[in-house]
Amino acid sequence: MAYGLPVLVAGIAFTVNEVFDKILLTQMVSKEEAGIYGACYKLAVFMTLYGTAFRMGVEPFFFSQAKKENPQLTYAQITYYFVLLGSLILLSVVVVLPVLADLFIKNPVYHQALDIVPIVLLASFCLGVYHNLSVWYKITDRTYFGAIISSLGACITLCVNLYFIPLYGFWASALATLLAYGTMMTLSYAFGRKYYPIPYRLGRILFYMFLSFGLASLSYYYFDASLAPGAALLFVFLVLITLLEYKSLKALFRREHTHY
What we know:
By secondary structure, the chain is an all-alpha fold. The protein is about 85% helix and about 0% strand.
């Protein structure tokens, strides 16, 4: 119970982060605006699925490694490659966003909220990183930190939405989601350094996250979501990853091949 109840609280707080922005938009603006926001919000499902699938697969592995010698290095490496692939997914989804919108949102009226999708994708990415960083309080039986951090995220979601929805509509909800998950990610990293230090490659992780979102913003907002410039930016990002990570990825795949 001491381990599980905080996890339950964290789950409730997560539900607040995911659901209450639509409820508040419905109550404070209109059902139409909430529907438009909700339809475009769903396009972030690609990042959500990636984060969820990764978490479900890797959490048992985290626990299995806890008793081994120096598991922190393994945790750091896993988070690093999660960020690397997540950065690529974020940029790829934004580049093909107009195509995805035509496929999954048939009514063009709903396209007016597409501008929030890069923001929501980044928020979902931060949530995925948070789940990776949260390994420290799970394997040290400090799950109450998860409840505290998630509850703070829920408070941010509620406060920002309540105050700014009358001023900015669904933009307030998108930015509230990013602020909540970004804060949770940052706090988990900060507390983890104190209670269970893990040697994350912080500089390179932040570099890939910010570069990916920067190129995605350039593609969508500056080049007006044009496919050709977006594809060029994606190609540049892929080349950069290849140049920077070729040796480490080659060594990783060689080691895995030898293992099997």
